[in-house]
């Protein structure tokens, strides 16, 4: 027979639950405030003690109200924080299971796609998904099976909150580790973020891709090269740095031939006057990555030579419309001149003795002394390009 004390505790719980059931929005908001203030950080045993072994009854009411009201933002932030107290409770795995049984993951993902909801509410939703993913592999799989990767990638690309974007990146990084069944799906989802308009989202996606690369091995996305090359032209240094790190990792994989070919192809405009008309300077920025990759191995340097990288660099150097591109290309050209004797001969022949001396003395500024006629020669691909002589580096 239950003791009098236990009966009193149960009676108190029933009164509390009846108060919740009969309360309207304002009263429920006050109840949530009190719960968050008094219960944040409590363990599962502590929550059960607080609710006389009936904490799940209150959690069920919270999740039921969430399902009914999440589209209308009714106390949504407080509601999600209250549910988070249960999901984050030490030894509270059963609370996560109970939340999932009512379709909690789908509700949280739908919240991310509702444009009228606040970014703060969406961030709370992401935090709950982090807690669920942190519970183990089967929970990560459940999120992915619910089209979570696509939903999270879209939110990462479109969110206006830097904090929310960082939380999503952490979640995607978690879903990409210890989750072999959906690892490639996460990788492809991150690649899909790269063309977005947010530099911060690009940076975070690149960072996550770099972190996954070792575990993934060969890149699972056949369309990887183009978006990676695309972010190299970013004016944001942090994006360029993350892209460079990923490029270095990919240069050791099967994607290397397509990657190097794409880099070299971008040095040469698609047609005469095309670059000047478009106003792009991307070829110079990408040229700056060539020495980085070439220094990784002699094999990479030789592959670049076979792809006529020297010819492309001289085209970029001859582009008088964009001094920044000339500078990047010239610095890259200097590396190949020092690396391969055949390149030195080719460049000396193309520039002439005096201009070549200026180039060797000051590769960062020599092009300012170049006259339009010589620039036109370089930009028109007149110079011979060494290709098959790349086997004997100096």
Provide structural commentary.
The chain has 394 residues and is an all-alpha fold. It has a domain of 116 residues. It is 70% helix and 0% strand. It has 25 helices and no strands. Helix 12 packs antiparallel against helix 13. The longest helix is centred in the first third of the chain and has 19 residues.
Compute the number of helices. Answer: 25
- Helix content percent band: over 70%
| Ends distance | 92 Å
Radius of gyration: 29 Å
- Give the strand content: under 5%
Order of helices and strands: HHHHHHHHHHHHHHHHHHHHHHHHH
Structural class, from helix and strand content?
mainly alpha
Annotation, overall tally of beta strands = 0
Give the overall pLDDT as a whole number: 87
Biggest β-sheet strands, sense, barrel? none
Low-pLDDT sequence parts: 271-281, 388-394
Instruction: Specify the overall morphology.
Output: elongated
Element layout with pairings:
Blueprint: H1 4-22, H2 25-39, H3 44-50, H4 55-69, H5 76-87, H6 93-101, H7 104-113, H8 119-133, H9 137-145, H10 148-158, H11 162-175, H12 183-193, H13 199-216, H14 225-231, H15 237-250, H16 256-265, H17 274-278, H18 282-287, H19 289-294, H20 298-306, H21 309-317, H22 323-339, H23 341-351, H24 353-361, H25 372-379
Helix pairs in contact: 2-5, 4-5, 5-8, 7-8, 7-10, 8-11, 10-11, 10-12, 11-13, 12-13, 13-15, 21-22, 22-23, 23-24
Task: List the keywords.
394 residues, 0% strand, mainly alpha, elongated, disordered C terminus
Brief write-up:
InterPro entries: ARM-like (IPR011989), ARM-type_fold (IPR016024), DUF5578 (IPR041090). The protein has 394 residues and is mostly helical.
């Amino acid at each position: 027979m239950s003791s009098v004390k236990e009966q009193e505790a149960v009676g108190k719980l029933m009164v509390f639950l009846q108060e919740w059931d009969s309360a309207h929005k304002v009263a429920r908001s006050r109840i949530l405030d009190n719960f968050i203030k008094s219960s944040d950080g409590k363990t599962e045993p502590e929550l059960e003690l607080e609710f006389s072994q009936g904490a799940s009854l209150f959690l069920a009411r919270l999740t039921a109200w969430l399902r009914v009201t999440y589209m209308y933002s009714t106390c949504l932030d407080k509601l999600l924080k209250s549910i988070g107290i249960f999901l984050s409770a030490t030894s509270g795995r059963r609370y996560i299971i109970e939340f999932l049984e009512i379709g909690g993951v789908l509700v949280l993902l739908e919240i991310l796609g509702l444009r009228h909801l606040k970014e703060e509410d969406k961030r709370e939703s992401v935090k709950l998904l982090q807690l669920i993913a942190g519970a183990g592999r089967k929970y990560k799989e459940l999120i992915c099976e619910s089209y979570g990767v696509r939903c999270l990638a879209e939110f990462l690309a479109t969110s206006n909150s830097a904090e929310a974007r960082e939380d999503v990146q952490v979640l995607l990084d978690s879903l990409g580790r210890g989750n072999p069944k959906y690892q490639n799906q996460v990788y492809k989802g991150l690649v899909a973020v790269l063309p977005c308009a947010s530099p911060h989202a690009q940076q975070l996606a690149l960072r996550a891709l770099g972190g996954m690369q070792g575990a993934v091995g060969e890149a699972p996305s056949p369309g990887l090269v183009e978006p990676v090359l695309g972010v190299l032209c970013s004016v944001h240094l942090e994006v360029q740095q993350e892209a460079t790190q990923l490029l270095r990792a990919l240069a050791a994989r099967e994607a290397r031939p397509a990657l190097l070919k794409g880099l070299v192809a971008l040095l040469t405009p698609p047609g005469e006057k095309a670059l000047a008309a478009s106003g792009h300077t991307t070829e110079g920025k990408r040229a700056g990555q060539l020495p980085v990759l070439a220094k990784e191995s002699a094999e990479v340097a030789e592959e670049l030579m076979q792809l006529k990288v020297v010819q492309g660099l001289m085209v970029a150097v001859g582009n008088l419309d964009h001094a920044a591109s000339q500078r990047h290309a010239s610095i890259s050209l200097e590396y190949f001149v020092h690396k391969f004797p055949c390149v030195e001969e080719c460049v000396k022949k193309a520039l002439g003795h005096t201009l070549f001396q200026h180039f060797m003395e000051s590769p960062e500024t020599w092009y300012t002394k170049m006259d339009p006629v010589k620039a036109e020669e370089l930009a028109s691909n007149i110079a011979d390009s060494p290709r098959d002589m790349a086997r004997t580096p100096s």
